[in-house]
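Write out the 3D structure for:
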Amino acid sequence: MVGAGQLARMTVPPAVGLGARLRVLATDPDESAAQVVPDVQLGSPDDLAALRRLAQGAAALTLDHEQVPTEHLRALEAEGVAVRPGPDALEHAQDKLLLRRRLDAMGVAGPAWAEVRSADDLRAFGERAGWPLVLKTPRGGYDGKGVLVVASLDEAAAWLERAAGEPLLAEEAVRFTREVAVMVARSPSGQAAAWPVVETVQVGGVCREVIAPAPDLDDDLSAQATALALRLAGELGVTGVMAVEGFEVPASPATDGASPRFLVNELAMRPHNSGHWTIEGSVTSQFEQHLRAVLDLPLGSTAPRARWTVMVNALGGDYPDLFHSHLHVMARDPAVKVHLYGKSVRPGRKIGHVTAWGDDLDAVRARAAHAADYITGTVDG
């Protein structure tokens, strides 16, 4: 696995269960997964020689992030390495402009968008789509980074200046009901599976909470989003787990529809924050399913284990003592599951997540939120 962050760390337990040996490429020996994986290679994902060392003797090469040069992955494929997902699929998760072009060619609904290189380009798009607009860097953004909402050309001036003529992606600011996501998995043999559609709650561009399944979701919208995610996985040739993040938008006379619609926002071709709930909440977690898929093993059941499962991210604050706060949470609510990522505490940084489940959604949300807030020092009782 290229990368040694929390996604690689959470892949370790299912690897043990499947009898698979996991090797990770870490840039630092203290990275999240490097702390718990015995086979750690040090190196950069930009270094082809390091990638070759990582892949030597491996049944498959996979990723815990998308920031790997596709030309390196193509070189490895040419040398016989099973790269999963492959570079032809992965580039759609790496490059948002490429993704938008491909989705348009497939007839997949998404926000109105334009490639912009100048103030004149942005002004023209704003006149068509209306202000405010969302500006995105085509590559490299995550957790709110590389995304800026602008209400005028003046607010976009610094970004346009920094881009220096390189393209930016401009999108309409979608007036959505809520954000939802679909996690699917696909194997090289073409077997595919999907988990229930979930609601994701964002705060400041960072996922705060995931509710599985999305409450009161229209049946047609759920079927539409799931079918679309499976179609994307198949047509893009994805191997492994993929997240399709999108918007639920209300029915509109302009669309001749009586039901809400699903608009695709972004893709991630790896285990994803919106699927962390599956560790406790599903028969097969996204991490086990990813391994099954990239190793071309039969995929596992995605059925939920409880009526409701809620995951809340724990973000770093001003309280660095995670050990004692974790003890308090364990004692206060023994049924809550806490996952800490072995990261130093920094304001706003994802340092772990909490999962709770049960039959009463309000109670489950309250339990998960309280545990996450206590760990981060937001509450102290």
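The chain is about 35% helix and 25% strand.
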